[in-house]
């Protein structure tokens, strides 16, 4: 194990918390005996190139400092390699860190966990999802929730949460069942109408929405939550229950499990770890032990 590790920092994460988190994280790592190199990027592609260069150069670990978007970039750099990943969660959602019981918005504590794990076991093998050339650690979203994201990204008006709320209201007004074709593990496709389909490697997205509450990152399976056709009133009643994971008991909700899934639906974009993947159809597969994660 090399003593030099790389901090992969998004300074804008969590309204600037990423920049503030980098210094105490670096200090904790140095106090643990590691030398620390910091990598920033001018934009996401540049940051990914720099992270991949650090991995190819033999860094002892890549420590992502930021939110789920930064973790998503880091996963793309380390997946399938022997370089372990640490997470200093400093974003708005932090679903990947929460799924693995890592400290959130406590950069020194999170870095100390990564340092201890490097010394004790060097990272525990953890599953990832893969869709095409994109890796994801939490949830692949499609349907109503991804359409809200699409509309929010197109809006030029308000910023932050209010933009999402406006997009949500607009999509509720246009709510219709989406005709899906779903194939599990390469089997025959089934045609269903659904409000959304979420493919969970981990349990939550959107900052704690436990859409796939039973999903585990060590079982080689996706939990696939299907919300069937429902009215606006039903959706408004069911959606708040997602934060507790209690929505699975509703008759409109079904959970499937599979190693791979192909989703087809017209006019629907897939999002994974909160980042756009592209329009359906998409095929996602679990890759057991794809990343060595620095957890206790």
Global structural class = alpha+beta
Radius of gyration: 19 Å
| Sequence of secondary-structure elements | EHEHEHEHHEEEHHEEEEHEEEEE
- Order of strands across the biggest sheet? 6-5-16-13-8-9
Distance between the termini: 18 Å
CATH class of the largest domain: Mainly Beta
Low-confidence stretches: none
> Whole-number average pLDDT?
92
Strand content: 25-35%
The CATH architecture category of the largest domain equals Sandwich
* Number of structurally distinct domains: 2
CATH topology name of the largest domain: Tumour Suppressor Smad4
Number of helices: 8
Fraction of residues in H or I helices: 25-40%
User: Major sheet, described briefly?
Assistant: 6 strands, antiparallel
What's the number of extended β-strand segments?
16
Global geometry? globular
* Multimeric organization: single chain
Write the layout of secondary structure elements.
Layout: E1 4-9, H1 13-31, E2 35-39, H2 44-56, E3 62-66, H3 68-78, E4 85-89, H4 95-99, H5 107-120, E5 124-131, E6 134-136, E7 139-143, H6 144-154, H7 161-173, E8 178-184, E9 190-194, E10 196-200, E11 222-227, H8 232-238, E12 253-258, E13 260-264, E14 269-272, E15 275-279, E16 282-293
Parallel strand pairs: 1-2, 1-3, 3-4
Antiparallel strand pairs: 5-6, 5-16, 7-10, 7-14, 8-9, 8-13, 10-11, 11-12, 13-16, 14-15
Helix pairs in contact: 1-5, 2-3, 6-7
């Amino acid at each position: 194990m090399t003593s030099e590790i790389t901090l992969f920092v998004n300074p804008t994460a969590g309204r600037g918390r990423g920049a503030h988190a980098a210094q105490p994280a670096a200090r904790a790592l140095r106090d643990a005996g590691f030398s620390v190199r910091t990598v920033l990027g001018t934009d996401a592609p540049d940051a990914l190139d720099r992270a991949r260069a650090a991995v190819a150069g033999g860094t002892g670990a890549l420590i992502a400092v930021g939110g789920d978007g930064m973790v998503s970039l880091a996963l793309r750099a380390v997946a399938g390699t022997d370089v372990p990943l640490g997470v200093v969660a400093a974003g708005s959602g932090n679903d990947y860190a929460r799924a693995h019981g890592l400290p959130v918005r406590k950069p020194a504590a999170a870095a100390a966990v990564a340092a201890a794990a490097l010394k004790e076991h060097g990272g525990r093998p953890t599953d990832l999802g893969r869709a095409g050339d994109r890796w994801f650690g939490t949830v692949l979203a499609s349907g109503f929730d991804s359409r809200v994201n699409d509309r929010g990204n197109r809006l030029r008006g308000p910023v932050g949460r209010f933009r999402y709320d406006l997009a949500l209201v607009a999509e509720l007004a246009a709510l219709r069942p989406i005709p899906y074709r779903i194939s599990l593990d390469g089997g025959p496709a089934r045609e269903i109408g659904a409000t959304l389909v979420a493919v969970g490697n981990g349990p939550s997205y959107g900052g704690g929405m436990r859409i796939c509450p039973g999903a585990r990152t060590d079982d080689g399976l996706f939990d696939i939550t299907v919300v069937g056709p429902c009215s606006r009133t039903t959706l408004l009643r069911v959606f708040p229950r997602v934060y507790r994971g209690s929505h699975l008991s509703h008759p409109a909700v079904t959970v499937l499990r599979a190693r791979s899934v192909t989703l087809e639906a017209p006019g629907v974009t897939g999002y994974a770890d909160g980042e756009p993947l592209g329009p359906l159809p998409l095929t996602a597969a679990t890759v057991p032990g794809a990343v060595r994660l620095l957890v206790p």
